[in-house]
Each structure stands twice: as structure tokens, then as C-alpha cells.
Design brief:
By secondary structure, this protein is α/β, with parallel strands linked by helices. About 35% of the residues lie in helices and about 15% in strands. The protein is built from 18 helices and nine strands. The two termini are about 30 Å apart.
């Protein structure tokens, strides 16, 4: 699954770049060829786009050789090398994965400040990198994990997350896409009367994007950011209680086989419920279309995509934007060349290469390169929905404590009835207190 997030998240997914030097070890200047080692996670986007990116960068930079390592388990490949002090110069690997390598490097203060890259001019263009990136993407707790107004993880491929459904089926039934949660519950009753579930989800990991959007709806962006920084008592507020209650009610409308298949091995069975018209809505990201491209489906099936329903009529609706990150270790041997490469990734030339594989860069004008379903997905913010971005702030490691497990992972137990909302809140509060104490 594209979002093998532990991101859930989902997490959401990444690619990376390993770089060392051959003749000019330790720098990008001087005579002789230079080798930029690029290691990329083989996600749903595939590996071909990285080969084309490497070739384009080499062509624009004579004397530079890009060595690609593309692997579905990137962490397993580069971690042993890093332990041997053979660090990549650039790594494209998102937060939210099970191995949590990016989080570990962040917590260990082992990632370079990329702020100077933002001031660079995009190769072949006349605009700075920071001005090419869509507003908002550089102002998150993910890109700026230390809250010091510096960017350490640069935003890469992004995709709106929301609720996916069969647009043709709803139309055939005369059912409207719910604009509020009350309308969602009304539709749930109509579907239940016909033996159809209102909701399913691939794994609980997908509740990260769902919950982030929901918290923006119940409390607004400022409330969301306070929650992301583990403010004391935040989960006992009316805004948080409303979010818990909405998910708990949604659990009562969830298709009965969901929990059994909500794991990395069987998650596609839950996604198949939408294609088979056994459930109406599921949270997911834009990658799901390619992920289920060859799966059987009901006659006339047509992908639909919507933001979360508003808390009440007239309130804001939100769609969380999931995005991957690219970064560079402090122990990179060729930081200047690494910076050049990262700047190149925000060029129109690179964006067009990525877009052919469905990987969309968060840059101005990217919609010009899109077609098909992507035009539907990336127009969600043009039709009234607001973008939610960000995630929980980085803290020092706390053994045995995971907000992801407490807040998102517990959803399975809520759906199955093994835990109550009160128990859920207790677990979240306990994790929140521990992580607040460890906040950098």
C-alpha cells in the first residue's frame, strides 16, 4: 500500500537519495567527476520516475553521476550503511513509516537545515524554491520539527486525503454526498436499510489524515496546532470530545468485516468493499486509484472524492493534505551537490517527470500537468474545502509511548466494542502527558 504508514500516516511512501563522492569526496567543488548516490523507496509510484530524474539531473550537470538505489524497504538498505558511517547525502523518506527512520534522525538532531535550499533559484527557472512551493507547505510541524523557523524536511509529493466513494452508485440511488455529519448519519440509516454499510477503512493508520481534518473542523487550525504540541488538557475540551464522539458514532456504521482485515496483509479487502458497493465511504489518499487499478468492481463504478462533512451547516469542511519529505543527514559528504539536487526537484521539468507516475509536487501551476482522476482530486481545494496540514510535534523518544497507537490504533477496539470512548480518551491523555514532557 502506498501509505504503508505506520501513516498510517500515511504514513502515506517515499524515495531517497544516497550521495557520496568518488574523486571529490567531501565537497561538490574541484576537478573530477562527482557521484550522487540516490536511494528511493519503491512506493506505488514505482521506480522509473527516479531513473528519469537521475538522467535529467546528470544531463544538466555534466560530470555528476547519480547512483540509484530503489527498494521497497529502503530503511533496511540504508540503515546498516549509516551505522558504518556511510551516510546518504539526500534521503527521500517520509515520516509515518513503521521503521520510523526519519523520526529517529529528527529526534537525534541528525538532519541538516535546508533553509538555504529555499533561497536557491530553481535550476533553469527564474524563481526561488521557496516561492515555487505552494503556500502552507513550509509552515508545518513536519517540515519545521524544532519550531525554530528553519526547514529541515522539505515537502515533496502531496495528495489530498478525504473520503472516497462510488459516485455512480450514489447517483443511481438518488443519494447526495453528505455536506454535514448529520446528513452523513441520515445517509447511514438509508444505506443500513438496504444492507449497505456507511463506512470502512483500510487500517487504523488512515485515521491520521482523517483525525487531523476532523480536529480542524471541530476546533479550527489553532486548536489543531495546540493538540499537535500536546497542550495540557487539550483532549478533555469540548472540541476534542466532539471529535471522539463523531468517530465513535461512525464506528457504529462501519462494515462488520473491517477490523478483521485492517492490517497490512488484508487492507485491500476493505478497500474492495467500496468497489463492490458493500460500503459507501472510506478515508484514503489519491494513491488508492492506482493501488486498486486492476481490482474487480461493480458495473459502472466511478471514483468520487470529498472532504469530511462539516460539523454543522455553514462550517468549514477540511481535507487533510498528506505530503512526503526529502532531507539530508548532517553527515552527508556532499551537501552542496545535495542542495542542488533538491532544488532541481522543484523545477517544472522534474514535476512533469514525477506527474507521469502520479507523484505530484507541491508547486505552483502543477495542475497544468495533470489529467484524468488527478484533476478531480487536486481540485478539492478549488470547490470550498480547506487544507489541513501538519502532524504531532517531534519529541524525545519515550519508551512504550505512541500517540499514533493511542489515538488512531484504538479505533479498531472502538469499532469492535472492546473499548469505550472513555478508555480511548484515557489512553490518549496518558500519551499526551508523556510526550508533552518530552517535547523538544
Amino acid at each position: 500500500m502506498k501509505k504503508v504508514l505506520a501513516l498510517s500516516l500515511a504514513a502515506v511512501l517515499s524515495a531517497g537519495i544516497l550521495t557520496g563522492c568518488t574523486k571529490n569526496e567531501g565537497g561538490s567543488g574541484g576537478d573530477g567527476d562527482k557521484t550522487l548516490k540516490v536511494a528511493a523507496l519503491e512506493s506505488a509510484y514505482g521506480s522509473d520516475m527516479w531513473k528519469e530524474i537521475a538522467a535529467a539531473f546528470e544531463k544538466a550537470n555534466p560530470g555528476v553521476k547519480v547512483e540509484l538505489t530503489v527498494d521497497k524497504n529502503l530503511e533496511d538498505v540504508i540503515s546498516p550503511q549509516m551505522k558504518a558511517n556511510n551516510y546518504p547525502d539526500v534521503i527521500h523518506l517520509a515520516v509515518g513509516r513503521t521503521a520510523a527512520l526519519t523520526e529517529t534522525m529528527t529526534k537525534d538532531n541528525a538532519i541538516r537545515d535546508l533553509s538555504e535550499v529555499l533561497e536557491m533559484t530553481v535550476p533553469g527557472e527564474d524563481v526561488k524554491v521557496k516561492d515555487k512551493i505552494i503556500p502552507g507547505f513550509l509552515d508545518t510541524l513536519v517540515t519545521n520539527p524544532y519550531s525554530d523557523n528553519k526547514t529541515y524536511l522539505a515537502p515533496m509529493f502531496y495528495g489530498p486525503c478525504g473520503l472516497f466513494y462510488d459516485a455512480a452508485f450514489l447517483k443511481s440511488k438518488g443519494w447526495e454526498v453528505p455536506q454535514t455529519w448529520d446528513e452523513m448519519w441520515e445517509l447511514g440509516e438509508k444505506a443500513k436499510a438496504e444492507g449497505i454499510a456507511l463506512f470502512t477503512y483500510p487500517t487504523t493508520g488512515y485515521f491520521d489524515a482523517f483525525f487531523y481534518a476532523l480536529l480542524n473542523e471541530t476546533g479550527g487550525p489553532d486548536f489543531f496546532n495546540r493538540a499537535m504540541r500536546y497542550e495540557q488538557g487539550i483532549w478533555d475540551t469540548p472540541e476534542a470530545n466532539q471529535a471522539f464522539d463523531i468517530v465513535a458514532k461512525l464506528a457504529t456504521y462501519t462494515e462488520k468485516t473491517t477490523v478483521a482485515n485492517a492490517n497490512d496483509a488484508n487492507y485491500q479487502k476493505n478497500q474492495q468493499l467500496i468497489l463492490d458497493r458493500k460500503a459507501l465511504f472510506m478515508p484514503n489518499g489519491t494513491w488508492v486509484v492506482d493501488e486498486m487499478r486492476d481490482a474487480p468492481r461493480a458495473d459502472g463504478f466511478e471514483w468520487g472524492f470529498t472532504a469530511l462533512p462539516a460539523v454543522k451547516e455553514g462550517d468549514d469542511r477540511y481535507s487533510y493534505t498528506f505530503f512526503e519529505q526529502i532531507w539530508s543527514p548532517k553527515k552527508a559528504k556532499n551537501p552542496e551537490l545535495a542542495n542542488q539536487f533538491i532544488a532541481f526537484l522543484y523545477s517544472d521539468e522534474a514535476a512533469k517527470i514525477f506527474a507521469k507516475s502520479g507523484a505530484i509536487q507541491p508547486i505552483e501551476g502543477v495542475s497544468e500537468f495533470l489529467e484524468g482522476n488527478n484533476k478531480l482530486f487536486y481540485s478539492i481545494y478549488d470547490t470550498g474545502a480547506k487544507a489541513a496540514m501538519g502532524a504531532f510535534a517531534t519529541t524525545d523518544p519515550v519508551e512504550g509511548v505512541s500517540m499514533k497507537d493511542a489515538l488512531f490504533g484504538t479505533v479498531d477496539s472502538i469499532v469492535s466494542g472492546q473499548k469505550t470512548v472513555a478508555q480511548w480518551k484515557e489512553a490518549v491523555n496518558k500519551a499526551n502527558d508523556a510526550l508533552r514532557a518530552a517535547l523538544k
